[in-house]
Backbone:
């Protein structure tokens, strides 16, 4: 029989809510910093100061302060907006108060939880102009974490005093203030990680993109870094990207036709070697602005070391959207939002990459409502409007590719014709000189000598031009052959695989025999020499096995070189292959990949290099209490740069020049064969890359290796 009793049930938030909305939703410290700075923009701030103190190594004195001169909050604002999860305030009021009238960047009401990614404790001080007090709020995320750990340690039925997220106390107090002061200050302590200079540089570069380049604002939005530990970034204003003069540039706009109430969109189309700007009704994603700059090799020389060519961004109402690419399995994610590099599978030598173009798509809340930020801040919601926008952007890039291809063909044809014409003209001149010599009956011997000399010189020039013309034709053939060779390396890999399998089988047999000899021959008898030599054979077989595995890594799993995402490859190492090793050894391993670009190489060989570095680090950390490994990857001047660091025992000064030598090892007692760094160095040299030992990021001990791999266009 049905129960007619009814009651009211309410949703409740588990104490782990802070983690789900903070460190797990925002998995990157730079993203967290970015979210908090965007809040300053939404608060009508003109000036934001980010102060980093005692960053490396971290201590009780370490802190990050974000201070702005924005509107500030009242006590009621703190209680009814800041303390309300997912508040709809910014969704209801999309325009900030006058006279700024900014379109707010935040929507979801969870950006404040980014603080938890930076540090365990937060003190916020805020006030509006005219108020006589600073409203102060302390949030100690460690209390939430401790309560979560306590609850997880008990069976659910044992939790008689289960606290919810809303049950944790947050201390509030007021401090006297000057009535003219206004704004908000966030002081973050109990930092979760140290900040190296490379981290600060990355934060600076990313925050330089928060406002669209050349965006016209009535009221400025200035960001200043204060970093006493790193003088290059101390008291430094964050400046927007400096755009060098582009080889090609286009600025596509839209217009509204009042007569038929229709928006029209400009677009590029290549026609017979020229790029024209035409117009058509706006597509389903709505009208957009699209600015695109293309740089050839000469144009790239105009960029400074701090500026990078890094593809196309999306700006909503002048402020960047989904700014960072936290790890995700798909390659065509943030940074390469539009899958520009992924297309190069279909025609490597004809496709532009994110290293050739800078651009931005201008969208607005009003005209592009279906282009929505994904909650995880990695991409946009995957709907038909976003798919259509990606197709539009790729098509515009393709028009430039068609133009460049047509231009290249014209140039080749023109140069070929010039060479042929020069060859014919030289022949004509030679004939005329011969004719002059025949008709010059009274020419002096000196004139005849000069004419003979000119004829000889013309003959040399003619031969040179003829050979150059042939070389030009041959060059085109060689280029095609080189393209084919690049995709024929599979034969070499297959050969290496076959040889390695044969040798590995033989080595395995010898190794097992040596193990038997070492174990059974002594039998309490004094066969010292036999034991010594058997052990030596066994050790050498181990070394050879490692060498064979090194060879196999070129052939195993991959029959050819492939394009693979750097982020995917490194994430697979840290999050999958070696995660158990890190856990078993109590190592805190972290990685930061600045953007998700692609590398053409053998993925297994690439990962094996880092496997060797990880193996070395594990050995170096064996007697360290707080074990840390950090890997940072980014692009710089057309190369992939990877910094791989640990806070282990480091490399003694007297060994620094020998660590890359074959069979040199200081960890023989732990199974070290002296092959790891030699293999890495050899592999990198084969692709014109380098590895060097740098000043370590972690202090006072540790080692940092810097790997540079050229990214060929």
Residues:
């Amino acid at each position: 029989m049905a129960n007619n009793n009814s009651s009211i049930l309410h949703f409740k938030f588990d104490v782990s809510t802070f983690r789900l909305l903070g460190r797990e939703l925002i998995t990157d410290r730079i993203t967290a910093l970015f979210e908090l700075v965007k809040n300053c923009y939404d608060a009508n701030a003109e000036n934001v100061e980010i102060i980093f103190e005692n960053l490396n190594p971290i201590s009780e004195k370490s802190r990050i302060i974000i201070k702005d001169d924005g509107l500030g909050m009242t006590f009621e604002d703190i209680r009814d907006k800041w303390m309300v999860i997912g508040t709809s305030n910014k969704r209801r009021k999309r325009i900030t108060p006058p006279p700024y009238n900014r379109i707010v960047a935040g929507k979801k009401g969870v950006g404040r939880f980014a603080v938890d990614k930076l540090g365990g404790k937060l003190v916020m001080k805020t006030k509006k102009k005219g108020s006589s007090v600073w409203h102060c709020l302390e949030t100690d995320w460690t209390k939430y974490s401790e309560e979560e750990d306590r609850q997880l340690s008990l069976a659910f039925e044992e939790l008689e005093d289960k606290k919810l997220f809303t049950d944790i106390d947050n201390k509030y107090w007021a401090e006297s203030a000057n009535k003219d002061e206004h704004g908000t200050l966030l002081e973050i302590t109990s930092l979760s990680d140290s900040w190296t200079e490379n981290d600060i540089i990355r934060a600076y570069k990313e925050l330089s993109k928060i406002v669209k380049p050349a965006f016209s604002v009535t009221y400025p939005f200035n960001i200043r870094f204060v970093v006493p530990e790193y003088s290059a970034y101390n008291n430094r204003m964050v400046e927007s990207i400096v755009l060098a003069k582009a080889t090609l540039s286009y600025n596509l706009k839209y217009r509204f036709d009042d007569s038929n109430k229709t928006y029209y969109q400009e677009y590029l189309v290549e026609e017979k070697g020229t790029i024209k700007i035409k117009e058509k009704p706006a597509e389903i994603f709505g009208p957009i602005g699209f600015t695109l700059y293309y740089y050839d090799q000469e144009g790239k020389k105009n960029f400074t070391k701090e500026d990078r060519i890094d593809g196309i961004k999306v700006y909503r109402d002048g402020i960047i959207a989904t700014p960072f690419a936290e790890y995700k399995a798909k390659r065509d994610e943030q940074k390469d939002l539009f899958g520009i590099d992924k297309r190069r599978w279909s025609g490597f030598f004809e496709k532009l990459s994110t290293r050739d173009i800078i651009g931005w798509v201008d969208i607005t809340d009003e005209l592009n409502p279906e282009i929505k930020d994904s909650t995880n801040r990695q991409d946009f919601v995957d709907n038909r409007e976003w798919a259509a926008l990606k197709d539009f952007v790729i098509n515009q890039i393709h028009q430039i590719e068609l133009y460049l291809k047509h231009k290249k063909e014209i140039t080749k044809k023109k140069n070929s014709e010039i060479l042929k014409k020069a060859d014919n003209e030289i022949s004509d001149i030679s004939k005329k000189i011969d004719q002059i010599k025949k008709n010059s009956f009274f020419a002096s011997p000196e004139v005849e000598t000069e004419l003979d000399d000119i004829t000889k010189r013309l003959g040399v020039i003619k031969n040179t031009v003829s050979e150059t013309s042939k070389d030009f034709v041959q060059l085109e053939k060689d280029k095609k052959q080189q393209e084919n060779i690049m995709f024929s390396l599979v034969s070499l890999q297959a050969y290496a695989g076959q040889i390695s399998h044969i040798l590995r089988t033989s080595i395995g047999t010898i190794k097992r025999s040596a193990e038997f000899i070492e174990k059974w021959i002594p039998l309490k008898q004094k066969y010292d020499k036999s034991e010594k030599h058997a052990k030596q054979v066994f050790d050498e077989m181990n070394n050879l096995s490692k060498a064979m595995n090194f060879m196999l890594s070129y052939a195993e799993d991959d029959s050819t070189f492939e394009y693979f995402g750097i982020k995917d490859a490194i994430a697979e190492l840290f999050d999958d292959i070696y995660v158990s090793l890190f856990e078993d050894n109590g190592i805190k391993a972290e990685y930061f990949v600045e953007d998700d670009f692609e590398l053409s190489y053998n993925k297994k060989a690439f990962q094996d290099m880092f496997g060797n570095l990880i193996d070395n680090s594990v050995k170096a950390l064996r007697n360290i209490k707080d074990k840390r490994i950090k890997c940072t990857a980014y692009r710089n001047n057309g190369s992939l740069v990877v910094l791989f660091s640990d806070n282990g025992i480091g490399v003694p000064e007297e060994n620094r020049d020998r660590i890359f030598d074959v069979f040199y090892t200081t960890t023989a007692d732990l199974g070290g064969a002296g092959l790891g760094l030699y293999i890495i160095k050899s592999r990198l040299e084969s692709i014109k890359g380098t590895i060097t030992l740098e000043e370590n990021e972690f202090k006072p001990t540790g080692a940092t290796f810097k790997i540079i791999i050229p990214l060929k266009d």
Notes: The first strand starts at residue 47 and ends at 53. The chain has four domains: 17-237, 248-407, 440-555, 561-710. Confidence is low (pLDDT under 50) at residues 325-334, 482-495, 554-559, 667-674.
